[in-house]
Design goal:
60s Ribosomal Protein L30, Chain: A; Aspartate Aminotransferase, domain 2; 2 domains; five-stranded mixed beta sheet
Length: 425
C-alpha cells in the first residue's frame, strides 16, 4: 500500500476590489481551481491557511471557503507582510492535503494578476484559464455555480473541418490528416444501407441495437449479453466513468494517449493518474505500480493513439498478474483492424478471464469509415455490460448509424482494401 503523507499546495489570485463580493468570488474560484487541478476530495483536506495583502480587509476569505461546503476543514486567515511593491489585492492560500507519496504531481494554481508571482510554473493556472475561471467572477454571471469537478476539464478540440480550412485560407483542394479518417470513405454497402434507412427517419431507433449486436455476436463468438453498442468509443468510455467512478476515485492511463480517459474521469470528479510512455510504448510495469486502493479502472490503448505502438501478449499477461480483482481493465482497440504484428495482444482473448474484469472497445469510425455516424461497441463480462446499459441513454445510437454499421461489418472486401491502403501509405 502506498505511504500516506501530508502535502502542501500553494495558490494565489487577486480580487477586483476590496469588497466582500469581490474577495468572496476570487476566493471561491481559487479554491475550486485547486480542487479541480489536483482532483482533491474535500474529505482529504487537512487544513487551509489564507493570507491577504494589507489592502484587503472587507471580508475573511475563509467565509467563502465555508460557502463551498468545507465545513469541517480547519481554516485560518492572516494578513500578508506589507512588503513595498508587493502584489496588490492579493489572496494567497496554503492548502494541506492528506495524500499518498505515489501521487508525485501536485499542481499549484495562480490566477488572474497573481500569475505573475510564479512565471516558472508550467501552465500556471492553465485549466482555470481555459475554463474561464480567471475571468469574470462566478458571482457576476446568472445561474448556479458549476460543479467543481468541471473546472479540471480541458475541452477536446477536434481538427478543423475541410470547409473551414478552405474558407480561412482561400483554398480549393484540402486533404485533412488531423483525425485519422479512412481515405477510402465508407463501404459502398454502408452508403446504400444509409440511403435505405433515410426512409424511416420518423421512427425511433432500436435502443438495444439487436441486429447489430447479433451480427457482432456471430463475428466475435460471444453471446449478445456480452456486447453493447454505443455512441462511438468516446461514448462508451463516458459510460464506464458514469457506471463506476465516484469523486475521489482514480483511473490509471498512459501519457500521451487518448485524452478521453482523463475527460471521462474528471467529469465524474475522479482523478486521472498518468504514467509516461517509455520509447513511445505503455510502461505496463509502472502502470501496475500506480494502481492504488481508489483505482477503479486502468486504460490500455492498443494500438496507442497517438504513437501507434502496440502491447505484446506476454507483456500484457505479466501486467495482468499484478492487477487487483477490483480494477476494471479497459482495452481500447479503435485501430485494432490495422495491426499486423501477430504478437500483439488480442483483447477478445481476455474478455472471459475468470480473475479479472476486462472490457474491450472498438469503433466503426476508423477502418470502417463511419466517423460521422458515431457508432462503436464494447465486449466484456455480462455483469459489466449490464452495468453500462444501466446508465446508457434510451436511444444512444441512431437508426441510420446502426444500419450502416451492420452493412459495413459484412463488407470484408472494403475492409481489406482499407488495410492495404494504410499499409501502402
Amino acid at each position: 500500500m502506498a505511504e500516506s503523507a501530508v502535502r502542501g499546495l500553494r495558490g494565489a489570485t487577486t480580487a477586483t476590489a476590496n469588497t466582500p463580493d469581490a474577495i468572496g468570488a476570487a476566493t471561491r474560484e481559487l479554491v475550486r481551481a485547486l480542487l479541480a487541478e489536483n482532483q482533491i476530495d474535500p474529505d482529504d483536506i487537512a487544513s487551509i491557511i489564507f493570507t491577504v495583502s494589507p489592502d484587503l480587509n472587507a471580508q475573511y476569505p475563509a467565509l467563502s471557503a465555508r460557502e463551498l461546503g468545507l465545513h469541517t476543514v480547519p481554516l485560518l486567515c492572516a494578513t500578508e507582510i506589507g512588503v513595498p511593491g508587493g502584489q496588490p489585492r492579493c489572496i494567497r492560500v496554503l492548502m494541506h492535503v492528506n495524500t499518498t507519496r505515489r501521487q508525485t504531481e501536485m499542481r499549484h494554481v495562480y490566477l488572474r494578476e497573481a500569475r505573475a508571482l510564479r512565471p516558472d510554473l508550467p501552465g500556471n493556472g492553465a485549466v482555470a484559464a481555459q475554463t474561464g475561471i480567471g475571468g469574470t467572477p462566478p458571482a457576476a454571471a446568472p445561474g448556479p455555480a458549476p460543479r467543481a469537478a468541471t473546472a479540471g476539464i480541458i475541452p477536446y478540440e477536434p481538427g478543423k473541418p475541410i470547409s473551414d480550412v478552405k474558407r480561412e485560407l482561400g483554398l480549393d483542394d484540402v486533404i485533412k490528416l488531423a483525425s485519422n479518417e479512412n481515405p477510402l470513405g465508407p463501404s459502398p454497402k454502408a452508403a446504400a444501407a444509409l440511403t435505405e434507412a433515410s426512409a424511416q427517419l420518423h421512427l425511433y431507433p432500436d435502443g438495444a441495437a439487436v441486429e447489430l449486436r447479433q451480427a457482432l455476436s456471430r463475428r466475435l463468438d460471444l453471446p449478445p449479453e456480452q456486447l453493447i453498442v454505443g455512441n462511438g468509443s468516446d461514448g462508451l468510455i463516458k459510460l464506464i466513468a458514469e457506471a463506476y467512478l465516484e469523486p475521489g476515485d482514480e483511473i490509471v492511463c498512459a501519457h500521451p494517449s487518448s485524452s478521453q480517459y482523463a475527460f471521462a474521469a474528471r467529469i465524474m470528479g475522479a482523478r486521472d493518474v498518468t504514467v509516461p510512455l517509455v520509447d513511445m510504448r505503455h510502461d505496463l510495469e509502472a502502470m501496475a505500480a500506480a494502481i492504488g486502493p481508489r483505482t477503479k479502472a486502468v486504460f490500455v490503448c492498443n494500438p496507442n493513439n497517438p504513437t501507434g505502438t502496440t502491447v505484446s501478449a506476454a507483456a500484457f499477461a505479466a501486467f495482468m498478474e499484478r492487477v487487483p480483482r477490483h480494477v476494471l481493465v479497459v482495452i481500447d482497440e479503435a485501430y485494432q483492424e490495422y495491426v499486423q504484428d501477430s504478437d500483439t495482444i488480442q483483447g477478445r482473448d481476455w474478455v472471459n478471464d475468470p480473475d479479472h474484469a476486462v472490457i474491450v472497445l472498438r469503433t466503426f469510425s476508423k477502418i470502417y469509415g463511419l466517423a460521422a455516424l458515431r457508432v462503436g461497441y464494447a465486449m466484456g463480462p455480462a455483469h459489466v455490460i449490464a452495468q453500462l446499459k444501466r446508465v446508457q441513454e434510451p436511444f444512444a445510437v441512431n437508426a441510420a448509424a446502426q444500419a450502416a454499421a451492420l452493412a459495413a461489418l459484412d463488407d470484408q472486401e472494403h475492409l481489406r482494401a482499407s488495410q492495404a491502403a494504410n499499409e501502402a501509405g
